[in-house]
Amino acid sequence: MTDTSRLHDRLLITRCLAGDSLAERALYDAHVERVYRLMHRMAGDADLAADFTQETFIRAFERLEQYRGDSSLGTWLHTIAVSVALNGMRKVKRLHGRTEAIDNVPEIAIQPHGLTGDLRTRLFAAVDALSEKLRPVFVMHDVEGYTHDEIATTLGIPVGTSKARLFDARAKLRLALAAFAGDHIA
Amino acid sequence: MSDDNFDELLAQSIRDYNAPGAIPREEMWQRIQAARAARKGVPPLPAAPAKRRMFGAPVWIGAAAAAALVLSVGVVIGRRVERNRAPAVAAAQPTVQATNTESTTVAKGPEAPPVSDRDSIVAAIRHETQHTAQRARELASAAPAPRAAGNADETRALAYHLVVMQHLAGSEAMITAFRSAARRGAMDAQLASWSRDLLSTTRLLETSPAVIQDPTMRRLLEDLDLVISQIAQYTTRGQINSDDLDLIEQSIDKRGVMEKLRSLPVGNAPVGT
Q: What is the pLDDT of residues B15-30, one digit of tens each?
């Protein structure tokens, strides 16, 4: 985080706390895209992603005075966002029982060229089935391109733990796909 | 499967995982605003009506013709404001000027263009804005046309289209006037009520049948909604603030609002039909 961006964050926050609606909109504009993308990746549903994003910003504006500046404003927002998404997904799963274990995914026909559509479906189902600890790290790092530093700060874990969880996530995906991909993609 | 092959395949395929589509930026912002206002017990800025309404046809034939006639005039005089001011802007010293909302009198800066010219232009466009807002409200609240009305649907669509175009012309003029005042370091009190009227009309039109069926127009109105909302808040506060002006300029530039407004095929509007 550069001094300039830290200063910009500080200025925006000060103005937001003073009730400046233009600054609130500027803060929203600066971060909404990245937050929404992550929410969509995690939720897999546009309506849920919008709900989580809205709730993130509502909470952020309510708690803005609690922001200490230890991390960037974006990272702080993402901490709220991931928390909102994980809690929201738990509720959704409880309501709909939509968690699908890898073993329940329909058998697929293997085709000899690369990652077929079916295998990709299998991969996505395997990512869905990752645990609550592994999936956010995998999605943030391998799908959205966050650094381990960003992930660690956002999730409140050490960098080493972030790396270890990514390693575990990949290992589980490899295991889940190996039986189906076999020699065709080796 | 080797680790290298797996990682390569993973990198190729995983980017499509739960890939997001278009971000509903404006919808989310309006809901955030509404939720926060509800929690604070403060009414938000005028919201678009939840329900679309149809409107009758015959009365709008005249309205459509009138809308078309003023459309070109609005655009032309809006751009004229900017041209007239250009030579004076460089020489003008930043001075805080205030106007009375009810009158069109503007305190004169040392190098400002003729006040009567500028004010008569602004007053004329402001007057048309009020007419457009009234027409938009009437369109939205009118009863559906009877089935026997024949080509009533086309006529209604035309009437709506012309009101939208007229509204866009008025919006361009207001934004131009706002920017011009900002460059002079002035705060024009007329702009507060003008921009709030335009904001209400924008939100009314955003849910109109003609706009809902036209994604390009809908996006333009959403962009306008944001920009006019910012201008309304800024001018209502009545205090010059360079940071706020920067944010408004950023919104205008980032969304290419003026370029989009100026690229509208005004010359091809079906005037008089």
A: 889 999 999 999 999 9
Q: Tell me how many domains chain A contains.
A: 2
Same structural domain, A184 and A139: yes
pLDDT tens-digit readout, B92-106: 333 333 333 333 333
pLDDT tens figures, B156-201: 667 777 778 778 888 888 888 888 888 888 877 778 888 888 888 8
CB contact under 8 A, A22 and B247: yes
Interface of A with B in 66-105 (CB under 8 A): none
Identify the domain containing residue A140 by its residue range: 100-186
CB contact under 8 A, A40 and B19: yes
User: Within this chain, do residues A110 and A91 fall inside the same structural domain, yes or no?
Assistant: no
CB contact under 8 A, A177 and B233: no
Chain B residues whose beta carbon lies within 8 Å of the beta carbon of residue A60: none
The average confidence (pLDDT) of chain A is: 83
B185: three-class secondary structure by DSSP = coil
User: Which residue from A minimizes the CA distance to B235?
Assistant: A22
Say how far apart CA B216 and CA B6 lie, in whole Å. Answer: 42
* Together in a domain, A86 and A109: no
Most confidently predicted of A61-65, A163-167, B79-83: A163-167
* pTM as predicted: 0.50
Three-class secondary structure assignment of chain A: CCHHHHHHHHHHHHHHHCCCHHHHHHHHHHHHHHHHHHHHHHHCCHHHHHHHHHHHHHHHHHHHHHCCCCCCHHHHHHHHHHHHHHHHHHHHHHHHCCCCCHHHCCCCCCCCCCCCHHHHHHHHHHHHCCCCCHHHHHHHHHHCCCCHHHHHHHHCCCHHHHHHHHHHHHHHHHHHHHHHHHHHHC
Q: In chain A, whose CA is at the least distance from the CA of B9?
A: A115
Query: Which pLDDT does position B108 carry in this prediction?
Result: 39
Q: State whether A65 and A109 are in the same domain.
A: no
